Amino acid sequence: MSIIGQETFSFKDMTLVKRNKLGDKVPLELFRAIRLIGMYEGLPMHGKATTLTIGRTIGEKIEATSVNELLKKFEQLKIGIPSVIEETGKGFRVAIEDCFCEGLPVHAGNLVCDLEGAIFEGALSKILNKKVSVKEVKCNVNGDERCEYEVRFLG
Ligand SMILES: [Zn+2]
Fold first, then answer.
1. How far is C-alpha 131 from the chain's CA centre?
2. Out of the domains of life, which is the source (predicted)?
């Protein structure tokens, strides 16, 4: 169920492609342009509230019934290759290999993968049927060795 507005598209709809010449792929360059130039640079406050809404709505529609399935889906969608690197009773940490931001110039102080974290958050809260918060704690663009999310179970 989407947070805002009427339900119009499902994830399944997104796979219905009928482009004879250009096929079902768009370059990473375009995805980055939308994410970083359009959203991160173009929206006020780097689009913070907006990315959260967008990400959660997308996440809730991802068809995954377990955390493992969700991790696989992240790789399949080529957002990055996630792996759980630390678990506590209160949550866990996810490291992302080959994140979409890998290779971009470093701009210290900027963590740019919040939308992808919000997608994870939306999907995870649906799978676990409880509130979770997913916070980006490391990012390649910030100069960190990789992107990382901290997942916390709330309530
Ligand atoms: Zn990243």
1. 17
2. Bacteria
Q: What pTM was estimated for this model as a whole?
A: 0.92
Give the Å distance between the CA of 101 and the centre of ligand 1.
5
- 79 CA from centroid of ligand 1 (Å): 9
Report the alpha-carbon distance of residue 77 to residue 69 in Å, rounded: 12
3-state secondary structure of 75: helix
Q: Please give the distance, rounded to the nearest whole angstrom, from the Cα atom of residue 76 to the centre of ligand 1.
A: 16
Instruction: Give the three-state DSSP class for 76.
Output: helix
Query: What is the CATH number that goes with domain 11-153?
Result: 3.30.1380.20
Instruction: Report every protein residue that has its C-beta within 5 angstroms of ion ligand 1.
Output: 99, 101, 113, 139, 147
